[in-house]
Design a protein that fits this description.
Length: 333
């Protein structure tokens, strides 16, 4: 199977084994050429990609030398996930126990050369996962949204959760946005999307008079029941003609045990560490430390700045003034 690494890892490996400048000069000036696109804008580079093959030709590498270049690239710092392949990050070898030990030391609970008792370690793991469980609910702490869908069956509602109509690992707390797709053309090649207005409360959904109306969907209500949520598009889309799409926050990974590896982006480690220090000091009835509180706030602000995605302002339909009919001009303005 072809090895896939991040573009940054590939460039660093080439720079260590040959000359990145020579590779740049060999790239075609044609902006439609695959090697040009990959050199300037790719996220990942596979061993069989045009840019890798160009490097092999440019430097006169054998297949074994190209493989060796990618083997080197895999050991260099890069993104946590690239085109389905896992690649190392500066903190990818950190475990939950490493994070806990460092937090206990900085909190002043654990001294140099000391070892935590099993009970303290287990309590710390619970506190760590409690914190991440809260972070899962905060949009500004989530770096990515995911689009999930279900083909309409004519049903009034669809379940959302593990193994449900819309299969997600954790039942979401709310919808970030939603739309439905009209399936058209051969092999659904000309799909058209329409936004859905979100009803944020059961009270709003309850005011709908004819809930079984089958027509062109306009809105959607999400019942965040536990452990399985349920979406109610309205009017009901006809079976097999539409897809209902919901956009959700991605799920932050918890630490299943003390040997679970750190799988977050690099900037999250400081936020996890300093906020765990604050919680650890509170758990052991130690006074607040303004230094660590400031570091924790700064770390969270860094994530907030990186994840900020502010959508354009859209007025709710019921607040937009409808057109006024002029009986003299026979026009609506």
């Amino acid at each position: 199977m072809a090895v896939t690494v991040s573009r940054q890892q590939f460039f660093e490996a080439v720079a260590q084994q040959a000359s990145l400048e020579i590779l740049f000069q060999a790239v075609s000036a044609d902006k439609a050429d695959p090697s040009w696109v990959q050199f300037n804008a790719a996220t990942c580079v596979a061993e069989t990609d045009a840019l890798a093959l160009l490097a092999q030709t440019t430097f006169g590498w054998t297949a074994a030398q190209l493989t060796a270049c990618f083997a080197l690239a895999e050991t260099l710092p890069g993104s946590t996930s690239c085109c389905g392949a896992t690649v190392p990050t500066p903190f990818s070898s950190y475990t939950a126990l490493d994070i806990i030990n460092l937090a206990y030391k900085d909190a002043g609970v654990l001294g140099v050369g000391q070892t935590l008792l099993a009970e303290d370690v287990n309590d710390a793991l619970i506190r760590l996962n409690m914190m991440i469980a809260q972070w899962r609910m905060k949009r500004w702490l989530i770096w990515h949204l995911v689009d999930k869908s279900v083909v309409s069956t004519g049903a009034q509602s669809y379940t959302v959760g593990p193994g449900c109509d819309i299969d997600v690992s954790v039942r979401p707390d709310k919808l970030e946005t939603a739309y439905f797709r009209m399936l058209a053309g051969s092999n659904n090649s000309q799909n058209v999307d329409y936004p859905l207005q979100i009803l944020f409360s059961y009270e709003d959904y309850a005011r709908i008079t004819l809930k079984s109306l089958v027509s062109f969907s306009q809105c959607i209500f999400y019942d965040s029941a536990w452990p399985v949520g349920r979406i109610y598009p309205w009017p009901l889309p006809q079976a097999n003609l539409y897809e209902v799409h919901i956009v959700l926050k991605d799920v932050l990974s918890m630490f299943d045990n003390l040997t679970s590896l750190y799988v977050f982006p690099p900037e999250y480690l400081a936020a996890i560490h300093y906020n765990l220090v604050i919680r650890t000091r509170a758990a052991y009835r130690l006074p607040p430390d303004v230094t660590y509180e400031g570091l924790a706030a700064d770390a969270l602000q860094t994530i907030r700045s990186a994840n900020a995605q502010i959508p354009s302002l859209v007025m709710p339909d019921n607040l937009v003034r409808p057109g006024v009919y002029n009986i003299y001009s026979d026009q609506t303005r």
